[in-house]
Design brief:
With 392 residues, this protein is α/β, with parallel strands linked by helices. The chain contains 13 helices and 14 strands. The strands form four sheets. A seven-stranded mixed sheet has the order 2-8-7-6-5-3-4, sandwiched between helices. Helix 6 links the parallel strand 3 and strand 4. The longest helix has 27 residues. The radius of gyration is 21 Å and the shape is globular.
């Protein structure tokens, strides 16, 4: 069957498509190769990235204002206790007291700091599947024995029966995401409370990675770390605000649990940047330009995505509902089990890149991200539909 190339005559040549991209052993490695394709300037529709496009103009304006003469009063020491202005702004934003917050080098820094306090080498951690493989990697880096428990399609709820069955006497922590990565599914506070209640009986801490949670602001849910004394929220400015350049993360929990983490790491996260966390303080004190940025992108892209999803489902290519929040969609590809091979064909023959479900523990699914330019997302979904039709 001859490939179809919408809006251009011939496929670009993508050396990485047959090389390191689809031979990658982890999603992080795959993502790095995908970024190299993007930065090469090829005519490829990028439908894999679940992060909001960087608001460079708004970020540049903050930096110019903060570091004009005189330098911002927010440019303070971050040793041990973090940037106090950023901590206070987080407290106001999420209804937290300063003693409930620790700031870190991104969300991964928060996870590492929490696991250092909670888990001894050889003890047990459970991580959701499908899931973001960095969670498993951070758990292994802590020296833990790592197992998985299910969040089954199509709703990707917490399977509490499976979770309880996987607990061991040595289980110390359970790691989940909300919004769920890769599906975008939202967990209501009652679902998190139910899991926390069950785990508290076994002395287990629930860690909820909430880097996408602000997309669901309209739901009015508080940070998970406020729902029960054995829950830790982990978040950052990376995904919703698109400010990956700042590497600003934090965790929030009951003050006694945070005190336990502080005792384990009395110097805090030693990698924290005084410079970037001062900028983060300014962002958090005046988040409106960044909120406007992500809201405008999704207001423009979600109707387009919904239209294409309806057509793709109607034509029998995809199965799965678009979640109500965020910029991720994780459908099952009808009749396809090897979505890594499918994604490679879509790239080489149709110039569109999606993330194969194999990298999230769910072969047969693909992750589509739509936090970028709406016209580019539209073009990518046209190419995806053409490719799935031709390859059926």
């Amino acid at each position: 069957m001859n490939p179809v190339h919408p809006n251009h005559a011939a496929p670009a040549q993508h050396p990485a498509a047959a090389g390191d991209l689809f031979e990658a052993g982890s999603y992080a490695e795959w993502g790095r190769a995908a970024i190299r394709i993007r930065e090469a300037g090829l005519d490829v529709s990028m439908l894999w990235d679940s992060t909001i496009a960087e608001p460079t103009a708004a970020l540049a304006a903050v930096v110019r204002e903060a570091f004009a003469d005189p330098v911002s009063s927010r440019y303070v020491s971050v040793f041990a206790d973090g940037n106090r202005f950023a901590v206070e702004a987080l407290g106001r934003r999420y209804g937290l007291r300063p003693e409930q917050i620790l700031t870190t080098t991104g969300a991964t820094g928060s996870l590492a700091l929490a696991l250092k306090a909670l888990v001894q080498p050889g003890e047990h951690i459970l991580v959701e599947t499908p899931g973001f493989d960095v969670l498993q990697r951070v758990a292994r880096d802590a020296g833990a024995e790592v197992d998985i428990f299910r969040r089954p399609a199509p709703d990707f709820r917490l399977d509490l029966d499976d979770l309880q069955a996987k607990l061991k006497p040595t289980t110390r922590a359970v790691l989940i995401t909300n919004l769920h990565n890769p599906s975008g599914a939202w967990l209501a506070p009652d679902a998190i409370k139910a899991a926390a209640t069950m785990l508290s009986k076994a002395g287990v801490v629930l860690i909820v990675d909430e880097v996408y949670a602000d997309f669901a602001q309209a739901a009015g849910a508080p940070p998970a770390g406020t729902l029960a004394p054995n829950v830790i929220s982990v978040s950052s400015l990376t995904k919703v605000f698109g400010l990956f350049a700042l590497k600003f993360g934090w965790l929030a929990a009951d003050y006694e649990l945070v005190a336990r983490l502080r005792r384990s790491a009395p110097d805090g996260d030693m990698g924290v940047s005084k410079l970037s966390h001062a900028v983060a303080a300014h962002v958090l004190e005046n988040p409106a330009p960044f909120e406007t940025h992500w809201r405008a992108l999704l207001a423009a892209s979600r109707p387009t995505v919904a239209k294409h999803v309806e057509a793709l489902v109607a034509d029998g290519h995809l199965d799965g509902e678009l979640p109500p929040y965020g910029c991720m969609y994780f459908p099952r590809v009808v009749g396809v089990s090897d979505t890594r091979a499918l994604a490679q064909r879509l790239l080489t023959d149709f110039d569109v890149l999606v993330a194969p479900g194999e990298y999230f523990g769910a072969p047969g699914h693909i992750r589509i991200g739509f936090g970028a330019d709406p016209d580019a997302i539209d073009e990518g979904l046209v190419r995806l539909h053409a490719g799935l039709t031709a390859l059926r």
